[in-house]
Amino acid sequence: STRFPAERLSTGLDWDDLVLTDHTRRQIAEIRTWVAHHKTMLSDWGLGDRVRPGYRVLFHGPPGTGKTLTATLLGKETDREVFRIDLSMVVSKFIGETEKNLANLFDKASDKSWILFFDEADALFGKRTEVRDAHDKYANQEVSYLLQRVETYPGLVILATNFRSNLDDAFTRRFETVVPFSVPKPPERLLLWQKSLPAKMRLSPQIDLVQIAKQYELTGANVINCVAYCALQMIEKGQEELSSELLLAAIRREYVKEDKLI
Q1: Cα–Cα distance, 260 to 254 (Å, whole number)
Q2: Is-contact 165 205, C-beta < 8 A?
Q3: What Cα–Cα distance (Å) separates residue 114 from each residue in 27, 41, 71, 159?
Q4: What pLDDT score does 230 carry?
Q5: Strands 115-118 and 241-242
Q6: Cβ distance 78 to 67 under 8 Å?
Q7: Is-contact 155 54, C-beta < 8 A?
Q8: Considering only CA atoms, which of 11, 140, 4 is closest in space to residue 72?
Q9: Which residues pair with 83 in a beta bridge?
Q10: CB–CB of 18/70 below 8 Å?
Q11: Are 209 and 236 contacting, i.e. CB atoms less than 8 angstroms apart?
């Protein structure tokens, strides 16, 4: 609802299902450490007066590389609710309404220990503009107000964007952790294929997964889409062996959707 414009995220997957680079995993480990121990640090270690509340994180990288799943797993691991904010319900063309919607959002979440996940955050956290008219003035006020509420939120706030450069510099300076999510390289792509293919899907001897992973640049979301497409086609035709033709057709569909040449 407009009182809390967000969708609760959940998953049946675990950390072992997430394929990331070692560098990205190390930075996510820092977030997991904060979630697990920040209350002890602030109260038992007496840092509550020196360390500001909450933890602000930026996830940046191409679509389908694991940003949303990572946010969801952080909540699952610690029994915290994770909410993806619906920016279309937050941003209003009417002056003052965006701030009002944000106030409702943060006020409701502040004492719940919820994880707030702003997907495609540059739509709301974008760069402030030079003030040329009243519209620019109020747009900049919205960004400033949002910055203030993010800074005082006592829980974990995750912003996700496809392009880090789209975010206002005032935000990027205030993140405790900035985590890159990159398009997987061949070793990671091979792992994605191996983890995603179901046991019932027997591979044709003609399929060389190592070569497939090396040749076709796909994200985790792309791989899942390919597997789902192949599974449906095989169920429809009563097949249990995945042919190389069907697999390549699935990969071709993903390339066409992204306007890439295969």
Answers
A1: 8
A2: no
A3: 21, 19, 11, 14
A4: 98
A5: unpaired
A6: no
A7: yes
A8: 11
A9: 8, 116
A10: yes
A11: no
pLDDT digit string, tens, across residues 99-145: 787 888 888 888 888 999 998 887 766 654 444 544 545 556 767 77
In the chain, the amino acid numbered 84 is R
Picking from 74, 56, 90, 62, the residue whose alpha carbon sits closest to that of residue 10 is 74
CA distances from residue 56 to 30, 154, 158 in whole angstroms, order as listed? 12, 10, 6
Contacts by 233-241 with C-beta closer than 8 Å and gap 24+? Answer: 234/201, 240/200, 240/201, 240/202, 241/202, 241/203, 241/204
Q: 21: which 2 tokens? A: 């680079």
| Whole-angstrom distance, CA of residue 202 vs CA of residue 149 | 52
Q: Kindly report the number of other CB atoms within 10 A of residue 253's CB atom.
A: 14
**Angle between the 97-109 and 134-152 helix axes, to the nearest 10 degrees?**
10
Residue 219, helix vs strand vs coil: coil
**pLDDT tens readout for residues 9-18:** 999 999 999 9
Q: Measured between alpha carbons, how far is 51 from 46 in angstroms, rounded to an integer?
A: 10
Model confidence, pTM: 0.86
Only one residue has tokens 């061949």, namely: 186
CA dist list (Å): 223 to 19, 21, 72, 179, 214:
12, 17, 20, 22, 13
> Do the beta carbons of residue 63 and residue 221 sit within 8 Å?
yes
Q: Scanning the structure block, which residue is given the tokens 């965006």?
A: 98
CB 127 within 8 A of CB 161: no
Pair 82, 75: CB distance under 8 Å: yes
